[in-house]
Design brief:
This protein is α/β, with parallel strands linked by helices. The chain contains 13 helices and 12 strands. Helix 1 runs antiparallel to helix 9, helix 4 runs parallel beside helix 5 and helix 10 runs parallel beside helix 13.
């Protein structure tokens, strides 16, 4: 059996997304900036996709800018938000995705801002009182806090954070890459100034993404060289990616409750079987709490084992099971997960992030637990 439990890294494309994209690979190949009929028909499709995305998240089409993915969208929001609004202080947490952390650290290194990191406890929770204290001392700050953590699944309260940011005149950006397409985002009521999405996290194509920027918080472009995206992003549009991400988000919203119910049943079963079969198993962050974490992510902390030390992901791969030791964007790093380090995780315990999608099955859960039990039988 082959099992794919690394959906937080990327998801399989839905066949219906591929079908929607195909005509724009074969038949409708005009440049959307061209004024002739070939270009106009493609421009029309791009704008229909923009309107669809805006409709789904209850935003205005003028607030949606298509990008190459979440990383570019994060960089744009951070760098251009800080520069456009003359911001001198930024607040984030040590467990943000590197698309946020490294970008803010680079801004600080260049002297553009002073950067403050919130404390996190052993469960990865931030302290809103500390956030308010920093905002009081530094009004008009740039706040960047993700909706849900890509490694440990912790969910932040965007309404509470956004209301604090609004009270102290801060610009609030949130990396919503892990929650877009899995949770409803209503931008008419959500107090967020900028948020981002990557299509490949919800069964769309890689290389597709979008940035939402609230109309009264406009920022200047990050990529120059053309008037595309209403002068907000130079470069010929990735038309098939735009068609694909809009279709993927539409499908995600069509049966979001059904998808969630199915995936939650997988996660609940996985947690129960792990507790029954592997003594000493634990869960990192809040990922083991079904009410306070992403329903798509479970970060498992396994008891010390000489047989599996540094080899667990390899041993799982030999059994046909694909999972992650943390963020896929850091899979080549030797220093391990910066998120788990921030939580003070015991380095003697192996940690694996299992992440699920609507295409996974209960049979795959049972198979994976059985293989984990076999791997840990010798040492527990």
């Amino acid at each position: 059996m082959r099992v794919y439990f690394d959906n937080a890294a990327t998801t399989a494309m839905d066949d219906r997304v591929i079908e929607a994209m195909l005509p724009y690979m074969k038949l409708h190949y005009g440049n959307p900036s061209s004024v002739h009929s070939h270009g106009r028909e493609v421009r029309s499709a791009v704008e229909k996709a923009r309107k669809k995305v805006a409709e789904l998240i209850n935003a205005s089409p003028s607030e949606i800018f298509f990008t190459s993915g979440g990383t570019e969208a994060d960089n744009t929001a951070i760098v251009c938000g800080i520069e456009t609004h003359g911001i001198k202080h930024a607040i984030t947490s040590p467990i943000e995705h590197h698309a946020v952390l490294h970008t803010l650290e680079e801004c600080a290194k260049k002297g553009k801002i002073k950067l403050s990191l919130l404390d996190v406890n052993q469960k990865g929770e931030i302290n809103l009182d500390q956030l308010e204290g920093l905002l009081k001392a530094n009004p008009n700050s740039f706040v960047s806090l993700m909706h849900a953590n890509n490694e440990i699944g912790n969910i932040n309260d965007l309404n509470a954070i956004g209301n604090l940011a609004k009270t102290y005149g801060a610009f609030f950006h949130s990396d919503t890459v892990q929650t877009m397409g899995h949770y409803v985002h209503d931008l008419k009521t959500l107090p967020v100034d900028a948020l981002v999405a990557g299509g490949h996290k919800f069964h769309g194509p890689k290389g597709s993404g979008f940035l939402y920027v609230r109309k009264d918080k406009k920022i200047h472009p990050f990529i120059h060289g053309g008037a595309q995206e209403r002068n907000m992003r130079g470069g010929t549009e990735n038309v098939i990616g735009i068609i694909g991400i809009a279709k993927a988000l539409e499908l995600a919203y069509e049966d979001m409750d059904g998808h969630r119910s199915h995936i939650e049943s997988l996660k609940k079963r996985f947690i129960g079987l792990l507790k029954e079969n592997i003594p000493g198993v634990a869960f990192n962050g809040l990922s083991g709490d079904l009410d306070r974490s992403l329903y798509t992510v479970l970060n498992v902390s396994l008891p010390p084992s000489e047989e599996n030390r540094g080899m667990l992901l390899f041993n799982l791969d030999l059994q046909g099971i694909s999972a992650s030791g943390g963020s896929a964007c850091s899979s080549g790093a030797t220093v391990g997960s910066h998120v788990l380090r921030a939580l003070g995780h015991d380095p003697e315990r192996e940690s694996v992030r299992f992440s699920f999608s609507r295409f996974n099955t209960l049979e795959e859960i049972d198979y994976t637990v059985e293989k984990l039990r076999e791997l840990y039988t010798v040492s527990v």
